[in-house]
Amino acid sequence: MADVRLASVSKRFGTTAALTDLSLDIEDGDFVVMLGPTGAGKTTTLRSIAGLDTIDGGDITIGGHSVAGLTPAQRDVAMVFQQYSLYPHLTVRDNLAFPLKSPLMSLDKAAIKRKVAEVAEVLHISHKLDNKATALSGGEMQRVSIGRALVRDPAIYLMDEPLSSLDAKLRSELRVELKRVQADLGATLLYVTHDQIEAMTMATRVGVLDKGRLVQFGTPRDVYENPASLYVATRLGLPRINALPANVFGAGAPSGATTIGLRPEHIRQGEGRSTRVTRVEHLGDQTRLHLDLDGHALVTLTDAHSALSPGDTLSVTPANPLWFDSAGARVG
Amino acid sequence: MNDSVATRAAQATPPGVARRVKGLSDRAIAWIFVGPTIFLLLAINIFPLIWTIRLSFTNFRANRPNREVEWVGLRNYERILGDSDIWLSMQATAHFLIWTIVLQVLIGFTLAWLINKKFRGNDLWTTIIVLPMMLSPAVVGNFWTFLYQPQIGLFNYVITWFTGADPSSFEMLGSVNLAPWSIIIVDTWMWTPFVMLICLAGLRSIPDYIYEAAEIDRASKLRQFFTITLPMVLPFLMLAVLFRGIENFKMFDLVVQLTGGGPGSITELASINLKREAFEKWRTGYSSAFAIILFVTVFGLASIYVKALNKVKER
């Protein structure tokens, strides 16, 4: 395991800039999650570190050494691809053993067998070891592809939305498992996702990407509570943060603020402006209330057994709001 | 459902036809459609085959149709298996078959592998390489006889560049040692593009990300070739070998154009020998037996091969 540093990395595809001046420090043992919508440059970041794409500017170091001009093999990275990338003509066992058979590993047959069995156990695919890679469900393929990375002990694990194609139950199971494996191994891991729950639950640090730029980097709690911009605030939190004109709750906005950002839990009920309830979603453990405030939609949470129904009136007032200026940057 | 397509079609049908079609079951109509094809198939494929089998047990001669035909049982087959001429022609066929397949697979795969590299103008190269395959065998045979001309032929001229020998000191088509190779060269020139195209299809079917995964897994280029490229192209390659094998087992046209079986009978492949027996010596019964033996051989070998091919695909 090693620390990985990106210094002012830039990458262009033709005329579009995929990464712009991206700097990122991943400490040894860090679990860094990169968040961002499609096209934000998440996958390009992974591929640049892996050496599958060559960067146009800046530098990448792994374990203190620049990897410029090195092949993926020389960089000693393991990667889980979003589209599985299994070897279709090989069995699950051979897929998992493939990286171990590299002469660089110099492992004997027994060690390979042990390692494969161990990883298969963790990922619940032991019973599928003799299946061909193409004779698996999507979830199983994804687990094999995670396993093919986990059998190794590389400088860094790079994972590109590895849980996106799994069903909800398996996803939450593997989330816990992956976090445990990472903590046990003390592995350095860069993980790309657009699922904020994965980011919040697994990351030691979260990086938010916007159009190829790193707009915020910090602990999940810090990024959630102190977003640098409205864009970052919308990437974390479910239901999403409510963004309303700054003056809807009257005066009190700091100078320059044009938007008030209210997380659902930052709305106190029972006083202030009166709103109309438009929709009530009972989720079992909580209830989501959709409100209408002078034509602005607003979502908040309430008691699981709330008796409110559409058409009712509810008074709300902000508590600990976030303020943003017209460009979306944080003000106060 | 008064307005269904069937109803409207029935209304649009002329009364005479409607009366005739009415009363026919769907099954009968189906037979009407398939019937002509089945009849043709029986008339030009199945019947001749059965007739050939029948003739192969007789001493029938097609140039003397009025002579009484005798039933000779298995005598034709016995004589063929002991006929040294036939064995020589089978050997010539095997030699031709093995070398054309080996050369075409090696060169075809290498060309496909090179063309598959991303470089400028590879589409143009593909078109140029594929051209020989588009030509008629008669044309190819004809102009290669010119290329092989000792005095004016380009082939001999090019060879002397490399060897320094006198161009007219050797005759590709006239020499006992070189004539079999002259045919192998022409067939390889003409049909390697076909093997290349099929290999190219195989290579293009391997997605880039598999190689990327292998790069990450620290597999050397050589290991990538043997664990990814070759196994994934193998079913395609085997299919190309099957096509070329069946085609070349019955090779006739190029040989007739180039050597006509000579010099002597050194390039007399089985099909040439068969033609000679049937239409020069007019031993119709005898050659029918030979044709049946060839048919069973190709059919048997191809069936075994297809089984192997399916196993490879399942792997």
Q: Key terms for this structure?
A:
heterodimer; A: alpha+beta; Rossmann fold; OB fold (Dihydrolipoamide Acetyltransferase, E2P); six-stranded mixed sheet; 17 strands; globular; B: 315 residues; mainly alpha; MetI-like fold; 2 domains; extended
Description:
The complex is a heterodimer of chains A (332) and B (315). Chain A has helices spanning 42-50, 72-75, 92-97, 109-122, 138-150, 168-185, 196-202, 220-225, 230-235, and strands spanning 4-13, 16-26, 31-35, 57-62, 65-66, 77-80, 156-160, 189-193, 205-210, 213-218, 242-245, 259-262, 267-282, 287-293, 296-302, 313-318, 322-324. With 332 residues, chain A is α+β, with helices and mostly antiparallel strands. Chain A has 2 domains: 4-235, P-loop containing nucleotide triphosphate hydrolases (Rossmann fold); 242-324, OB fold (Dihydrolipoamide Acetyltransferase, E2P) (Beta Barrel). In chain A, the strands form 4 sheets. Chain A has a 6-stranded mixed β-sheet, with helices on both faces. In chain A, strands 2-1-4-5 form a 4-stranded antiparallel β-sheet, with helices on one face. In chain A, strand 1 (4-13) and strand 2 form a beta hairpin. The relative contact order of chain A is 0.13. The mean pLDDT of chain A is 89. Chain B folds into 2 domains: 17-55, no CATH class; 80-314, MetI-like (MetI-like fold, Orthogonal Bundle), CATH 1.10.3720. In chain B, helix 5 (84-115) runs antiparallel to helix 11 (221-249). The longest helix of chain B is centred in the N-terminal third of the chain and has 32 residues, at 84-115. Chain B is extended. The model of chain B has no long low-confidence stretch (mean pLDDT 89). The chains are: A alpha+beta (332), B mainly alpha (315). The interface between A and B is medium-sized, with 25 and 17 residues.
